[in-house]
């Protein structure tokens, strides 16, 4: 996996990243304040539930930043192509560089990426050979955080609020 940092200058990508960070900050502040902390003080949920929410949130934003700045597998300017593998390479008609057969040119980034899957505006980066696993981690942690938030919302509206009304 590549260790180089990769930034893409794309206004649409920066807007999507800004929207994601805004939603993440809103949920990291709003959900605990409305659901977790009041029910923790009442003794309905444990400190483990609060810590799990913050750990899921931290893993989600960390995987977002890792996927967005990781090198997707950008091809170098002058690749050293072994003579035996020359038949597995082709010329890119957009950037006039030699690239492996499964590589594609990204019009947003302006370069060829090894085993490119797609350009994701939500991470403002291509998903390629070197950051595909980081993108899958981001999808996984986002799913975990979303599911946990939905479970907390369900418990809040269908379990904890009727519990308060019965105590009144």
Automatic annotation (TrEMBL):
UniProt-listed Enzyme Commission number(s): 2.3.1.225
Protein's membrane topology: Multi-pass membrane protein
Reaction(s) catalysed (UniProt annotation): L-cysteinyl-[protein] + hexadecanoyl-CoA = S-hexadecanoyl-L-cysteinyl-[protein] + CoA
Subcellular location per the Swiss-Prot or TrEMBL entry: Membrane
Molecular function via GO: protein-cysteine S-palmitoyltransferase activity
Alphabetically ordered keywords of this record: Acyltransferase, Membrane, Transferase, Transmembrane, Transmembrane helix
Gene Ontology BP terms: protein targeting to membrane
Statement: the UniProt record of this protein carries the keyword S-adenosyl-L-methionine: no
Transmembrane segments: 12-31, 43-65
Superkingdom of this protein's organism: Eukaryota
Domain Palmitoyltransferase DHHC per the UniProt entry, residue ranges: 89-162
One Pfam assignment: DHHC
Any one GO CC term of the record: endoplasmic reticulum
Keyword field contains Transmembrane helix: yes
Database matches in PANTHER family: PALMITOYLTRANSFERASE ZDHHC21, ZINC FINGER DHHC DOMAIN CONTAINING PROTEIN
Similarity comment text for this entry: Belongs to the DHHC palmitoyltransferase family.
Domain notes: The DHHC domain is required for palmitoyltransferase activity.
Protein name from the UniProt record: Palmitoyltransferase
Organism: Pycnonotus jocosus (Red-whiskered bulbul)
Gene coding for it: Zdhhc21
